[in-house]
Amino acid sequence: FKGGDTCEYLLSSGRFLGEKVWQPHSCMMHKYKNSEAKNCLIDKHVVFIGDSRIRQLFYSFIKLINPQVKEEGIKHGNIPFEDKSASIKVDFLWYPEVNGSMRQRIKSWTEGFVAKPHIIVVGAATWSIKIHNGSNEALAQYKINITSIAPLLEKLAISSDVYWVLQDPVYEDMLSESRKMITNEKIDAYNEAAVRILNSSSRNSKAKVKVFSVSKLIAQETIMKSADGLHLPESSRDTNAMILMNVYCNKIMKPIDGSCCQPQPPLTLIQKIAFCFFTLSIFGYLIISLIHRNNYRKNKSCTDLESGEEKKPAISTPNVSTLEMLLHCFCKLGLIMTYFYLCDRANLFMKENKFYTHSSFFIPIVYILVLGVFYTENTKETKVLNREQTDEWKGWMQLVILIYHISGASTFLPVYMHIRVLVAAYLFQTGYGHFSYFWIKGDFGVYRVCQVLFRLNFLVVVLCIVMDRPYQFYYFVPLVTVWFMIIYATLAVWPQIVQKKANGNCLWHFGLLLKLICLLTCIYFLSYSQGTFEKIFSFWPLSKCFELNGNVYEWWFRWKLDRYVVFHGMLFAFIYLALQKHQMISEGKGDPLFSNRVSNVLLFISIVSFLTYSIWASSCKNKTECNELHPSVSVVQILAFILIRNIPGYVRSVYSSFFAWFGKISLELFICQYHIWLAADTKGILVLIPGYPMFNVLVSTFIFVCVAHEISQITNDLAQIVVPKDNSTLLKRLLCIAGFFSGLHFFSAMQDQSRH
């Protein structure tokens, strides 16, 4: 199903999500703020021509520019509006009937010496029905008058946006006696006449007068709430005004969450190069596969006629197999990236806005929790936060975050605050995992660092190229990458203190604690010194990575939101490993972590702490205030969960293989959702199968999970090739990678220059 002409869909079809949220068919509608409306309409002249219904639309439209406007104009007269700060003029012209007077006014704009309005919104019919008591003669005259006006509107539509607003249905039971002749049957007859004449008079598709018929659909759902049965309730006319704003402004402002009426973005130079690279990889892989297949046939075991001995087939050289594996990975990746581009950059598939309801979030949560419990298995080891358990933890958190994103639950503050804890828990695991590795292994080699950085960043770098998005757009990966480098620098800088060294002398433990205190001090200083933080990350080349929309504020906000949790993870790892070393905890199968009495007390405190945090998060009234407290208190629920999960021996000895499977591809799931599960860079929902929301989610989810799993395998395979263990080979690869990023920067600079 193609996205097609989304402007036509926006003007003609859609449905209500809930009571007040209008969802156009196939595309997303942006909710314009006053500042955005002014920027779009700067130096523009907009004219509304018609009766009292058009006057309602006029007022809703100008309230998008200035919400303080009051409906105090003359009821049966012209009403001017001007915003001098943006040089915007919006006029309402009182022409309640389609007659000679309206024709004369429209004709005046077609004459060369008169300035034409940039937007013209016309509509009238109910007065003709009322004055002439719904007579057939009035309808015939209406057809004649529209026929004479249509060529003029078409001429204006060559240089201006012209909209003909069809008449909304009425609620006949509520109409006053003087309006009883205005029936829905009459209104339908007038609308049919207008549509037939306007469409038939259109010679040039580019100059077509746009028929604004969507208001009929909106009115059908809401006219019962009308005060007089004729005029729409305020929420409905506000929706119509917002649709008008989207039709005109989306192609100018290009909002991410406004896909209606937006043209497909042109391919950038870097995207074209990426397309050529992936195409060559696909052809290269096919050629090598054919060559290998022919060689295999030739070198099949056969009997030597002279000696009577069987010949062994020739063995392929490692270089050839490595090249084939490399091309195979890029071939698959090229096909996957094509799907990414088609889903979220080409106007091929439909996109829709999110709409939150409690059931759309909590029912899937209950469903996956039941599935997770069903797939319970025994762990291979029973240590605290063992591999299976951390994979399980990542898995269920990632699934909850995915449901949170697709359901639009960020609008519900209690859910938002709990999801913030899940994101913090990921970073807590980053601090715990990397600290544990460096502390126990003492491996600070370049190979380890490059492996981690490659696995974290490979997919994001490819998406930055293919989807034309900055690195900071995928904020979680930069966040994890920077924290990994901070952990590495903290432990690798002189003196390097590891477990083996600390076991020989207890004073080294104090040295490590001193390092952690220094780290905490730096974090505290940077979190309250935005200027210093922004200066550090505004230096080239860091600015190329961390700028979003021309500044690093978004990066500072993301970093500050969970600034202490990685430190908490490192500190927890240090305390846990120290307790483990001194045999102060019991990690046997089925054994409680501490003595029964201590375990029971800690378990009770943990449950109370967990519930206390949830009660506090659920009572949040202000997102800004709660975000300020979050960095300091999120660790409470994280630690409470760890203790509840690990103190009872039985609970520690089992895990959910269902959640653990998703945990192994959690990073890929988090990143891929941006473009092939959600849409418009996470602002909307991808629609592969319109009209069947549940079936659409099932199909898109299946493809999305398969793609994430495949990308995880591709990343692992490429990591072995691109980041070898041999230091001299690794150095050569690093030089190649440096050359690649230099070229990327060069082409990016060329792109920026051509855009300016």
UniProtKB/TrEMBL annotation:
EC number: 2.3.1.45
Annotated localization: Golgi apparatus membrane
Membrane-spanning residues: 269-291, 325-343, 355-375, 396-417, 452-468, 474-494, 506-526, 561-579, 600-617, 659-679, 685-709, 730-750
Catalytic activity field: CMP-N-acetyl-beta-neuraminate + acetyl-CoA = CMP-N-acetyl-9-O-acetyl-beta-neuraminate + CoA; CMP-N-acetyl-beta-neuraminate + acetyl-CoA = CMP-N-acetyl-7-O-acetyl-beta-neuraminate + CoA; a ganglioside GD3 (d18:1(4E)) + acetyl-CoA = a ganglioside Ac-O-7-GD3(d18:1(4E)) + CoA
A biological-process GO annotation: carbohydrate metabolic process
Keywords, in A-Z order: Acyltransferase, Glycoprotein, Golgi apparatus, Membrane, Transferase, Transmembrane, Transmembrane helix
Residue ranges annotated for the NXPE C-terminal domain, each copy included: 22-72
Name of one Pfam family that matches: Cas1_AcylT
GO MF term list: N-acetylneuraminate 9-O-acetyltransferase activity
Chief location: Golgi
Domain Cas1p 10 TM acyl transferase: 253-734
Cross-referenced InterPro entries: Cas1_AcylTrans_dom, NXPE4_C
Record GO cellular component, one term: Golgi membrane
Domain of life: Eukaryota
Membrane-topology annotation of the record: Multi-pass membrane protein
Family stated for the protein in its record: Belongs to the PC-esterase family. CASD1 subfamily.
Protein name: N-acetylneuraminate (7)9-O-acetyltransferase
Native organism: Leptocoma aspasia
